[in-house]
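3.2 Worked example (two chains)
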Amino acid sequence: MNTFAALLPRFYRTQRYYGDPWLVILTALLVGFGLVMMTSASIEIASRSYGDGLYYFKRQLVFLAVGVGVSAFMLSVPMRFWYRGSVAWLALAYALLVLVLVPGIGHEVNGSVRWFSLSAFSFQASEPAKLLIVFFMAWFLSRHRVLVRHSIKGLLIPLILLGFPVSLLLLEPDFGAVVVLGIAVFGMLFLAGVRLYLFLGMAGLAVGGAWLLVVSSEYRMQRLMTFLQALKDPFSDDVVFGSGYQLAQALIAFGRGEWFGVGLGNSIQKMYFLPEAHTDFVLAIIAEELGVVSVLLLLVLFFAFVLRAMLIARRNEKSGRLFAAYLGYGIAFLFMGQVLINVAVNTGLLPTKGLTLPFLSYGGSSLLMCLVMTALLLRIDIEHHELQHESQQPRLNARPNPLPSVMPEPSEPPRPLYQPSYQMAPAPRPVYQVAQKTVFAPHSGGRAS
């Protein structure tokens, strides 16, 4: 056993704390529930298309196994590795988004060029690109925190650098990824302490730019008009038999499910009425089979997951580990943005947009990146726990203090623990004060007056 342990990386030999237990439990619940509901939503289309009702379930299990393996590796990688390569990660995000647009490399599905096709597996370029961009943003905010807080230059530099990947995402086109990335970036800037008037100004410009993108694109404008028509009459002929067909079928699923659903596996909408039932619209099938109560409980799980991620980031910010803190905030906002948009699309609160529901929708790239981001949150929490634990331990080989006799000897001040620069908040500028002069009264024996 000792020989086997010696072959393992140092992390697995010495580590006893494996991250926030609530985050691990919530992830396991979401992944398990997602496997059940994705299988139920896909069993009919899998039987008809492949002759195997568990076809998508088996593939999702493979994606899950790969994701767990990659996540285990990510747990062993220290934060300083991601910090030192932050600029390289932004360049890698650029490269992925450029390569997917090259003919012969990128794979087109439903009119969008978003995937790399690897024989039996397709990988969406925007999924890792969003995380890589969050790496860079966390590095910039931790390194230039004062500039970001007190200068418009500190706000413009990261936004200009992000303009290029946003343009590439719009060329795919993948407007949903742009919105999710925007939520994460602006959320990180807000928590970094950007002045409110600057933040509101930039947010207003971003909303105005999004509106111009909608009105300048025919298919986006068509989706918007269908959405507005659906708000007035969701079951009109123009909506049901036009571009609002998916939305109408999703609303039918919610209506059939009522409070407690029609029973697991008894959905009718998944039988070719609701397209993409096992991917983007799996929430509608959950509502039909298990009811709105189950949907609300699922949203509670997602809320608790995001809350734990924010708490982990907040603990690191309070201890001065700014890069880890902003990375945790960014990952939390990525999850939150994707959940909110997917739920809003399924319930008709936003125009139809192709975004998966984290941990639940079918898709290898989505599940893999969700597990990787969870592993990063756990690694952030592990390193914070290590530093807290070390600060409470007595210094090794310290000379014991002798027993006091007449006059106790002054104890040796403890040496400060070393922390890498990427973990420490910028030290405040020293404030110098002129020492007050002590005036002695005459004939007082040296007593201060």
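3.2.1 Second chain
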Amino acid sequence: MRKLVFAFCLLMGAAPVQALPLSSVLDDAELRGTATFRYLGFPLYRARLYTSGGAALNWQQDFGLELRYLRRLSQKDLVQATLREMKRIGNDAPVEDQLLRCFDAVGKGDRYLAVTDGPDKIGFWRNGKRVCTLSYPRIKERFMEVFLGENTQSRAFTRRLKGG
């Protein structure tokens, strides 16, 4: 009996962190699309796009984007890659200090959820826990176009993520 209780305790301790109920921060949120982003053939993360009622992406409405990482990445790599992509697509924004407060190094299985709040704010949750808010004029567009814009690193990734 003690072995059974011990095994149960181990299993409970190994249970995944409870996911944030997306509907608590985004009304009527439903999954719109999923995609895996690869760099040089290596999968980096799985992305999920959530929109109101699972409708097509509408930049005028709030939406959520979850990234579940498939490998380890340092904080520096996350922040610098984000800034490079924002600049590459023409959305340079002086938010490096905010990104450094929002993002930590990630390991396999870690996830970030970004939920837009109007055009000028994005809230971030890491593994279900609120970590920060990015605030900057048009940050929704400037940041989210890295994943959902017309000039992303992978048009096939973006098309699948948008549910197409």
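3.3 Remarks
Residues 1-18 have pLDDT under 50 and may be disordered.
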